[in-house]
Amino acid sequence: MTTNDPPTTSSEPRPPARDPDQTTDRPRRARRTRRRGWIKWLGIAILAAVLALAMWPRPLPVETAPANRGALTVTVLEEGQTRVRHRYLITPPVAGSLQRVTLRAGDPVVAGETVLALLRPQPPGFIDARSRREMRARVEAAEAVLQHRRADLEAVEARLDLARADFARAERLHRDGSIPEQQWQTAANQVRVLEIEQRAAGFAQQVAAHELEQARATLSTPPDDAGPPEPPREHDSDRYPYHDQQDGAGAADQTADETADVEGEGDAPALWPIVSPIDGVVLNIVEENARVVSPDMTIMEIGDPRDLEAEIELLSIDAVRVRPGADVEIVHWGGDGTLRGRVSAVEPGGFTKVSALGVEEQRVRVRVDLIGLDRDDAGARLGDRYRVEGRIVTWHEDDVLQVPVGALFRRGNRWLVFVVRDGRVVETEVGIGQQDGRHAQVLDGLEEDDRVVMHPPDSLEDGMRVRDASE
């Protein structure tokens, strides 16, 4: 049944009527909102990608070097000095008064000709009063003994004259047969006995005379009228001794002239010349002043500067690795280039030397023969006790697998290197042999052409990606 009820009124408000323009912009605003959301998420993704890319580990740039084969020479470098191989110390043969030496270091000397020094016999010393009285008493006693020996000789001669006269009479009577044979033999024997006694008495007289001369010699004193010493001649120290400056006269002529006027009594000259035993130069003057010297006092050193060798002082731990015949390079000697040498001997005994830091070190001297020394160049400039540095070869091999020492590092007692394989480093333990300061011998752990990291940083670890900084 249909009823036509009147419409009822509600208390709820009705929605406003829609604007046709607003209905058209709603999908557009939704699209804009969705687009802004996508842009935001895209920016976040891009930012995350940038951050991830920035934080992604990059290959570390490192310097690498190959392990290759080649010659390896191990040397030890130390200071030393040159020295004349055969040195001669000039000493007086006897005690005496040395005349002032006019030679200077560097002056040439000729064997058997150049007079190195002049020696005067040492004068007797002064005698005190008591000793003089004792000596005079000995002289008087010696004179008395001489007189006694002369008297004995005269007595023997007198008996001998009488015995000869008796023998002459016995000889005549024996020829006549007036005396027996025994009496004649007795007279002849008496003459022979007295002749022997005469000779003995003569010898005793000579002994007494020599004893008297010896006793008188003890009383001799320096002459009272000895004048002051002769002053040195002008420019005497600026020229070679016993050589004339104008005509270059020989040493022997002037030596004869200077010793001719100082000859004393007896067979020995008043000045005893000491002549050079070798051809060479004066290396050092130890005593140049006039003074009394003893037989063991050194006057000078001489030698041949052409006969040079080097003396290198090594630490004992380095000397045990040096063998005679090893090659040596002489460097830092003051000239251009290097000089060649060869080890001649390693002294068996060491010595203690204090270093510049005050540390006591055990050192060993190594003698080195200089080879091919040019006398016109290096040989003429090098002299005795010049400072040099010697690089001595202690080990050498022609074909050795080696790496730079800058690639090695230690961990405990192990030697390690970083080997680059497929862009990553691999920590590898290696066996190391000889080292020369720049390269080290590889005994095991590496192959030829393996590339190792030079001077690995502390941040480098096993397995990290690396790249060659030179690429």
Compose a concise summary of this entry.
With 471 residues, this protein is an alpha+beta fold.
The radius of gyration over CA amounts to 56 Å
Number of strands: 21
Helix content: 25-40%
> Main sheet: which strands, in order across?
2-11-14-13-12-15
What is the count of helical runs?
6
Contiguous uncertain segments of 5+ residues:
1-5, 224-268
The CATH superfamily of the largest domain is: RNA polymerase II/Efflux pump adaptor protein, barrel-sandwich hybrid domain
The run of helices and strands is HEEEEEEHHHEEEEEHEEEHEEEEEEE
Annotated CATH architecture of the largest domain:
Beta Barrel
Q: Could you tell me the mean pLDDT?
A: 81
Q: How would a textbook summarize the main sheet?
A: 6 strands, antiparallel, barrel
Strand content: 25-35%
Annotated CATH topology of the largest domain: OB fold (Dihydrolipoamide Acetyltransferase, E2P)
CATH class of the largest domain: Mainly Beta
Number of domains: 4
Given the helix and strand composition, which structural class is it?
alpha+beta
Shape: rod-shaped
Distance between the termini: 101 Å
